[in-house]
Design a protein that fits this description.
Blueprint: H1 3-19, H2 22-53, H3 58-107, H4 116-129, H5 135-161, H6 165-211, H7 216-221, H8 225-277, H9 283-324, E1 345-352, E2 362-369, E3 374-379, H10 385-392, E4 400-405, E5 408-409, H11 415-419, E6 422-425, H12 436-441, H13 449-459, H14 462-466, H15 489-503, E7 507-511, H16 519-533, E8 537-541, E9 553-558, E10 561-566, H17 568-572, H18 578-587
Parallel strand pairs: 3-8, 3-9, 6-7, 7-8
Antiparallel strand pairs: 1-2, 1-4, 4-5, 9-10
Helix pairs in contact: 1-9, 2-3, 2-5, 2-9, 4-6, 4-9, 5-9, 6-8, 6-9, 8-9, 13-15
Bound molecules: adenosine-5'-triphosphate.
Length: 591
């Protein structure tokens, strides 16, 4: 067994001991009983047969048969009870490890979620804990077989030792052949597992697209049917070939294994039959030795197979550990965030390039957002406006410089507490296929129900909600419920704005919040802006420069840097200014 096997076994059983130590107790009892059971069926028949061929005492025979049946029944029954208890716990652990996996996926550095290597590893982790290994149940079954086989082997060896070393040699040769075959089969499975994730991800990507109605329009309008079908077929073919290779290989080695077992059986019967014919052993001993030789062979073969299986399974399950232990690069602060209703935000000489890229997306940004100030961020596409917000939200750490909130580098703050300072609506916000109420509350039940009503009114979705028979309890999208709604882009944006306001954080960031709104709704949002964000600090990214008018300051991003900064009145007067030019360009269509 290699180091990875030990590490994986240690990792999982440490968790078991920590969470449900009784699991180990049941496992040990089951192992002990499994080891004892074969001896009942090896020893009793010998005495029964010898009694039948010898004195034929009915009373002795009856006692032997009853004892054998009761022992078999009792041991088997106890094994079933312990296994049933462990089976229940296995399910508990299946959920436990899955929950840890899901939590890790949600808590890991955001940049990992954009890294194909991590995404492949995540797939490997999930597959590795699934049918490839059978999870903890698979691991425990391996253990049970290994330890029980080992104990049985020791006993059987004592029985056979008195008979003949030739029996050992025949069984050992057969086991050696069998083990070689198992190692070949395991190699095939490992190769399949390693090649699987890329093909799997491509295959499921196409499936997920087809399962989401929002892709339906583009698929039809752009005639994407052929392209997607082709790509789906390609990845399906890839998967088919992968598994066909595996099954063909396993079948070939399986046939060879059957031939070896058959040769061994013939060898043992011929040899022990010869000893019985020349009366070197009794018929009872013949039966016992045949059963012992078979138990020895199957025990040893089983032990070796399960050891190889353990190595293979822990290899698969080790992928889960690799995923769980992915190093987070972002600084983890531990400073408590003080109660702050009016934070002051400072970008100090901040530069940034995205992970695995070398080009700076933001360069030397110096900017202060005063408490309660409303800042409008404008600029051409790709200038770095959203990136500026992502840095404030700690989706990435800055490459150079620092961001301070109330004089403290945001990296020093405890992450979850820091997140409570921010209510953000990104351009690519996502609503969940849950009720409107759940989408607004996001598990936060502190606010009064009436507050939701007010919010719906402010963000302009009240009319829509009131028109629905189930009101706020209507499901968004139709994934789960025919009566779910498919909100328009603008309606979705209004719900997203309401969700951000519901969070009631001291800093509100809206990235293109009105892009999908009609002019009336947009006007309403502008009009309600002060009521929506109140005296909170707010950052407002928009290409519609009319929105800048109700902001205190405007930051103009160009060529990845802060090109202009000031009030609307100041910037609009700069003759060569970018802002003045953009404002004029938009304004001319309205005169
Ligand atoms: N995850 C990422 N990895 C690498 N580069 C990225 C990533 N996200 C954005 N970029 C690049 O960073 C640059 C700035 O993008 P950003 O989204 O900040 O621009 P923006 O000013 O908000 O643009 P828009 O007005 O179009 O929304 C772009 O060139 C973009 O391609």
């Amino acid at each position: 067994m290699n180091k990875k096997t030990w590490k994986t076994v240690g990792y999982f059983y440490r968790e078991v001991c920590k969470e449900k130590p009784v699991y180990i107790v049941f496992l040990l009892f089951a192992i002990l009983l499994m080891a004892i059971l074969p001896f009942v069926n090896i020893l009793f028949p010998r005495y029964i047969i010898d009694e039948l061929l010898g004195q034929r005492r009915v009373e002795v025979l009856a006692r032997l048969v009853v004892a054998m049946v009761i022992l078999n029944w009792a041991i088997q029954g106890l094994i079933t009870i312990f296994e049933r208890e462990n089976y229940k716990l296995d399910h508990w652990f299946e959920q436990y490890f899955d929950k840890k996996f899901v939590l890790r996926s949600m808590e890991m550095d955001f940049e990992h979620t954009e890294n194909p290597e991590v995404l492949n590893q995540s797939n490997k982790a999930r597959d590795g804990m699934g049918w490839y290994s059978g999870g903890l149940l698979g691991l425990s079954n391996c253990f049970k077989e290994i330890v029980a086989s080992f104990i049985t082997l020791l006993g059987v060896m004592v029985i056979i030792a008195g008979a003949s070393p030739l029996l050992f040699i025949i069984a050992l040769l057969s086991v050696a052949g069998g083990s070689y075959i198992v190692s070949k089969m395991n190699g095939l499975e490992i190769a399949t597992f390693n090649k699987g994730p890329q093909i799997n991800r491509a295959f499921w990507y196409i499936h997920d697209i087809l399962g989401e109605s929002r892709y339906g329009k583009d698929i039809r309008l752009y005639g994407a049917k052929r392209m997607l079908t082709r790509k789906g077929e390609e990845s399906f073919r890839g998967l088919y070939h992968l598994f066909k290779e595996l099954e063909d290989g396993k079948r070939k080695w399986g046939c060879l294994s059957a031939v070896i077992a058959m040769c061994e059986g013939i060898g043992i019967y011929l040899y022990l039959g010869y000893l019985a014919v020349i009366e070197k052993i009794t018929i009872g001993q013949f039966t016992m030795l045949i059963t012992s030789a078979i138990a020895f062979r199957t025990g040893l073969q089983n032990m070796i197979t399960q050891l190889q299986e353990l190595e293979k399974k822990t290899g698969f399950m080790g992928e889960y550990i690799t995923f769980m232990e992915y190093k987070d690069a972002m600084v983890k602060g531990h400073r408590k965030v003080p109660d702050m209703s009016h934070p002051r935000i400072e970008f100090k000489n901040v530069s940034f390039c995205y992970p695995r890229t070398e080009q700076y997306v933001l360069k030397n940004i110096d900017l202060t957002i005063e408490p309660g100030e409303h800042l409008s961020v404008v600029g051409l596409n790709g200038a770095g406006k959203t990136t500026f917000i992502k840095l404030l939200c700690r989706m990435y750490d800055v490459t150079e410089g620092e961001i301070l909130v109330n004089g403290v580098n945001i990296q020093e703050y405890e992450y979850d507490q820091y997140m409570k300072l921010l209510s953000v609506v990104f351009q690519d916000f996502k609503l969940f296929s849950m009720s409107i109420r759940d989408n607004l509350r996001m598990g936060n039940w502190e606010k009064e129900a009436e507050y939701l009503e007010v919010l719906c009114e402010l963000s302009g979705i009240k009319e829509k909600v009131d028109s629905l028979p189930n009101g706020l309890d209507t499901l968004i999208f139709k994934y789960f419920d025919e009566e779910g709604i498919e909100p328009s882009g603008g309606e979705q944006q209004k719900i997203a704005i309401a969700r951000a306001i519901y969070k009631d954080a001291p800093v509100v960031v809206l990235d293109e919040p009105t892009a999908a709104l009609d002019p009336v709704a947009e006007y309403e949002i502008y009009k309600q802006f002060d009521r929506l964000v109140g005296g909170k600090t707010a950052v407002y990214i928009s290409h519609r420069l009319s929105s800048c008018k109700f902001c205190d300051k405007i930051a103009v991003f160009a060529e990845h840097t802060l090109a202009e900064y000031g009030t609307h009145d100041e910037l609009v007067k700069q003759p060569e200014g970018i802002y003045a030019e953009m404002f004029q360009a938009q304004a001319q269509y309205y005169v």
